Amino acid sequence: MRGTEYLFMLLFWLLGVAATTTFAANVSYDHRALVIDGKRRLLISGSIHYPRSTPDMWPDLIKKSKDGGLDVIETYVFWNLHEPVRSQYDFEGRKDLVKFVKLVAEAGLYVHLRIGPYVCAEWNYGGFPLWLHFLPGIKFRTDNEPFKAEMKRFTAKIVDMMKQENLYASQGGPIILSQIENEYGNIDSAYGPAAKTYINWAATMATSLDTGVPWVMCQQEDAPDPIINTCNGFYCDQFTQNSKKTPKMWTENWTGWFLSFGGAVPYRPVEDIAFAVARFFQRGGTFQNYYMYHGGTNFGRTTGGPFIATSYDYDAPLDEYGLVRQPKWGHLKDLHSAIKLCEEPMMATDPTITSLGSNLEASVYKTGSGLCAAYLANVGTQSDATVNFNGNSYNLPAWSVSILPDCKNVVLNTAKINSLTTITRFMRQSLEDGVSPSKVLQSGWSWFIEPVGISNKNAFMKLGLVEQINTTADESDYLWYSLRTEIQGDEPFLQDGSQTVLHVESLGHALHAFINGKFAGSGKGNSGNAKVSMEVPATLVPGKNTIDLLSLTVGLQNYGAFFDLTGAGITGPVKLKGLKNGSSIDLSSAQWTYQIGLKGEELGLSTGSSSVWVSQSTLPKKQSLIWYKTNFDTPAGHDPIALDFTGMGKGEAWVNGQSIGRYWPTYTAPNGGCTNSCNFRGPYNSNKCLENCGKPSQAHYHVPRSWLQPSGNTLVLFEEMGGDPTQISFATRKMEGLCSHVSESHPVPVDMWSSDQKTGRKTGPTLLLECPLPNQVISSIKFASFGTPRGTCGSFSHGRCSSTRALSVVRKACIGSKSCSIGVSINTFGEPCVGVTKSLAVEASCT
Fold this sequence. Notes:
The protein is of the alpha+beta class.
């Protein structure tokens, strides 16, 4: 293709001057790609789950996704969110699916609607409503008539909603794909022969709804025609479709991993993600979706797992708060631009794949009219390589792919980042009246002490121990188990001066024990084993004694065969034991009294409006089972807001009546397993790259600004374990600095490549700095070095080779401007060291 043609394509995709997308009348597919109005399309997609953010955030998230080079936004549909009570639907606020889809359409992007209705997604109960569990004769996700009837009813409900709003592509809307079921192929063997008949039924049911667009099933090798089987995983370049009629599609490319309470924070290097994406398109892929592109927040009690944290940041290109994460967002944007330059030859033909040596591979897309695009890959993890291709020599770093839109010139190598890096931190933020947020939250507290044990007239008695989920139907995290027992004084476990302990075994997820109204101890499971086995000292008195056990869930199971049958709560045995003599008495089969939920929940304390709140001169601190309330003013500015729960134990928090989620800052990550840097070379897994070891898994909790008013906001906490609410403080999420580090050996930037081909000029790489917010300018240059600088953003240092002109040149070019670009060459900075490959590293601030 001639240079002018590439320039036109680049302007179309990179600079965003293309007209708003005209949505299709016809979507189909062939073996190569989705076909939209008769034209094969190469599509880049990203996941944004509408309830994990707020409606006021949606337009900005969608815009940043489009600016990042996406064509499609993917979302699940969350059944339990929309139908919490059978036949009673909720599509308001964060649940407004139609509004979300329409906003995506207004931005000119397509939609992939993954109805499921099983979603997994680290979401409570996999997205199934709990009432489904109690329908007579039901068995989930198998050839079971009660389940199939409910699944069809909800799926049809969503399809009808979309049709009524003309949102399918066949109606001129943005929805080009739908998904039925979800990763069933991972666990279908457990369901035996009924799995096959169920998946065939699901396919027939979905296609009978006549959406006019294709349906997919991810991870389903036996997906029946015309359903498209797709791939999920960290890598899908080796994925093979189950039919020669379907295109190669990747519905979940995991950009990081989810966070669990008690775990370290996972992250995934962008070089590895870019490598995986380029390999997928190199080997014939044509549709790729990032899971997640924006992860967001698990507000309320929506987390699954169990033990999934409130943050669902996922190390995504857009962070939990909606801010661009650099260099991940920028490097992937450059990757998308480079791949789009190859779209025309890629859509015209299949790749020809050849070996260039050990771990070296070339894929060429060449048409009869002379269009040619190539991908050169080094899948080795240790050594860089030099390869000869089309009569030219190319350097391929280990674990990288180079993209050549004309089969000659490299516009991007996945291991070489020519994008900004930003330093984003939580900063303590003063309020509008100039008072520290922590000081504001130290005054005006009121509280309510949650009663220990049974306080509700709806309590009931039963012989033996009950399973928690079947008892509470997940109406609350909490279930009280209460027992009155008579101590004579001559029990065997009290003899020989033996210390008495209370032994409790539970399916999980956590447990607090009280003996005669006093706190005795706690136990908890973890994301690998939710079960709790606990022994606590038991101080008993002659006569009547009360044992109160508060069992609690931390999100219900969301994955696995028969996950809906995974129980919770105290299953026993519950024993009183003598530590020295080993004797015991089993209390499991006694008559227990049960209470679902807390007194504070019954009183509606989360809204802050009850009359039971008290306020005295001394604020109770470090006390278990206590509700706190205070008022606060909104922090000034427009930066995203979080509450830092340092000093608290475990509980849930509400702002103006809306739950920001469960908090648990005392559950810290293990001390080992984290690294200061992570080698992107080689296969990634969720434990490869970890940070935050030895620290709280999550300390900061997102408070959406749209939930706040300028003053008079109400914060309510329920604290289970004991904490000091005066230590809570506000923080705002700010970009503290931005950096770029570009080598002389980088490929010519994508946005200069076409014009470079046209003029024939030899243009080197450039370093670009740009402030992220509209009214910001570059106010200072903290560091600049041309030569052999060392370190990473925030900790750069000069190497042995360093130009004396670097700082002054960069300051002159950048300070006072919103953006600046600087050529990375000796023409700009002089020659500080002959014969050495040099690079330019810069750190700047914006105000």
